[in-house]
Amino acid sequence: MNFRRGRFREEPEINFIPLIDVLLVVLIFLMASTTYSKFTELKISLPEADAEKQTTRPKEVNVGVDAAGKYAINKQVFTFTTVAALAQALKDGAAGVADPVIIINADAAAKHQDVVHVMEAARLAQYPNITFATQTPTAPGK
């Protein structure tokens, strides 16, 4: 005996409105509780290749970086181990001068990270004056 023969059963449907409300509340909570950290920046004055040469030159520390990632500080080869060791080598290369100019001579094929290591070492050594060596373009036929 089937007494429910003529009744149509309605399928349940999912209501998305409460789900959207909960997701909006979670999104607002995450946006309000997120902290934005500000990274310290290194102020660098980029060199101009067409500038005239200075008449007086401050104490300079020349740092060379080649394509293989090798460093040379004042023409002395330095084997990189840590940034702190590189900072100490920069201090040794400055020979007690309080505020030398760090000149980075990087190969065009050198990795950016190798140059960043030198910049970070200069920051650790508290040498804010950093510049990059450039080449003046040679005219054809010279």
Summarize the structure.
This protein has helices at 17-33, 83-94, 112-124; strands at residues 60-65, 71-73, 76-78, 101-106, 130-132. By secondary structure, the chain is an alpha/beta fold. The mean pLDDT is 80.
Q: What features would you describe in this structure?
A:
The protein contains three helices and five strands. The chain is an alpha/beta fold. It is elongated, with a radius of gyration of 31 Å. Helix content is 30%, strand content 15%.
Low confidence ranges:
none
Q: Specify the biggest β-sheet.
A: 5 strands, mixed
Instruction: Provide the β-strand percentage band.
Output: 5-15%
The H/E string reads HEEEHEHE
Shape, per Cα inertia axes: elongated
Give the mean pLDDT. 80
Classify the helix fraction into a percent range: 25-40%
What is the spatial order of strands in the main beta sheet? 3-2-1-4-5
The secondary structure category is alpha/beta
The end-to-end span amounts to 109 Å
Mind telling me the C-alpha Rg? Answer: 31 Å
How many β-strands, per DSSP? 5
What is the topological layout?
Elements: H1 17-33, E1 60-65, E2 71-73, E3 76-78, H2 83-94, E4 101-106, H3 112-124, E5 130-132
Parallel strand pairs: 1-4, 4-5
Antiparallel strand pairs: 1-2, 2-3
Provide key terms for this protein.
single chain, 142 residues, alpha/beta, 3 helices, 5 strands, 15% strand, elongated
